[in-house]
Amino acid sequence: xxxxxxxxxxxxxxxxxxxxxxxxxxxxxxxxxxxxxxxxxxxxxxxxxxxxxxxxxxxxxxxxxxxxxxxxxxxxxxxxxxxxxxxxxxxxxxxxxxxxxxxxxxxxxxxxxxxxxxxxxxxxxxxxxxxxxxxxxxxxxxxxxxxxxxxxxxxxxxxxxxxxxxxxxxxxxxxxxxxxxxxxxxxxxxxxxxxxxxxxxxxxxxxxxxxxxxxxxxxxxxxxxxxxxxxxxxxxxxxxxxxxxxxxxxxxxxxxxxxxxxxxxxxxxxxxxxxxxxxxxxxxxxxxxxxxxxxxxxxxxxxxxxxxxxxxxxxxxxxxxxxxxxxxxxxxxxxxxxxxxxxxxxxx
Length: 348
Description:
By secondary structure, this protein is α/β, with parallel strands linked by helices. It folds into 2 domains: 3-313, NADP-dependent oxidoreductase domain (TIM Barrel); 318-348, no CATH class. It is 38% helix and 13% strand. It has helices at 34-46, 62-70, 100-114, 133-145, 159-171, 195-202, 244-261, 265-274, 289-296, 305-315, 323-329, 336-342; strands at residues 3-5, 12-14, 16-19, 51-53, 80-85, 119-124, 149-155, 179-183, 205-209, 281-284. It has an 8-stranded parallel barrel with strand order 3-4-5-6-7-8-9-10, surrounded by 4 helices. A two-stranded antiparallel ribbon has the order 1-2. Helix 1 (34-46) packs parallel to helix 9 (289-296), helix 4 packs across helix 5 (159-171) and helix 7 (244-261) packs antiparallel against helix 10 (305-315). The radius of gyration is 20 Å and the shape is globular. It starts with a strand and ends in a 6-residue tail after the last helix. 42% of the residues are buried.
C-alpha cells in the first residue's frame, strides 16, 4: 500500500480508504452489519489501509455506531477515523447546517457513537450558504483546540467556497482545511477545471468519493445491459448522466483494458484515479466483502502510459470558458497550477 501526505499536513494516509456508507444502511446503499463491517475492516487493515471514512448521516447515524462497535481489540489504534457534519440528524431547525451550535453538538455525538476520544479528520459534508464561513471555521478550530478533532476538511465545496474558507482561516490564524473530499472519476472530470488546480496551489489533499460513479464504471454494465439491483436500479441520481453515449464509450475502453490485463473493470477505473498526480486517497466501498477484495487489487495495478492515454482521451472533457480563452491566448504565461488543467490541451 502506498501512503501519501494529506495536503500540507504531516499526516500520511493510505492511497485507498474504507468507505462505510453501506454500514447500517436500509438496503439502497447496502446493509452491512457489525460482523460484516468488522470482517471488511480487518480485510482492509491486512492490506495496509489506515483511513476509515464515514459520516453522521450514513445509515441514519448507524454507520458511526457500527464503526464504534467494530473497532475493538486495538483496531482503533491502527486507523485514522474520518467523519462528516452538515446534513440533518434530527427534527429541529438547528439539527443541520454548519452553525457553531450544530457542528459542536454533532461532533460530540459522533465521538460517542464511534466510542473514541478524538476524530482524526472532521469534514464539512456540503456547503451551507446560510451560515457565515467565519462561524463555521471558528467552530472547527475550537474543536481542534479542545482536542476533539485533529484535522479538518471539506467536501463538495466549489472552488470559491474552499478558497474563501482557506482565506478566513489564514486571516484568523485558525486551522485550515487540509483536504477536500470530491467526486472525481473517468466519467466526472469537472474537478479538473478548478478544484484540482486549487489543491495544487493551496496544498489541499484530495480524497475521492464514489470512484466507480455509483457502479457505472465497474465494467459490469454496458450499453447493452442495465443494472438489475443496487442503487442505480432504484433510480439513484448520483452521478447524473447527461451523455449516455460518452459513458458507454468510456466503459468500452475500461473493459478492453481489463480484458487484456485479466482484471476487473473496477480495478482499471480505480487504478486510473490512483495514478492521477493530485489524488491523495480513493475511498472504496462495497455491499459485499467480495467487492472490497476486488477493489483492493487496484492498488497493485500499474497502468501503462498507453493505457492511461487511451482512458484520458475517451473521457477528456471540453474546455469551458474562461479556460478555452486562456488556452488560446495565455499559454506563454501559465503556471504549474494552471497546467494541471491545461497540459493535455496544449499543442504537442
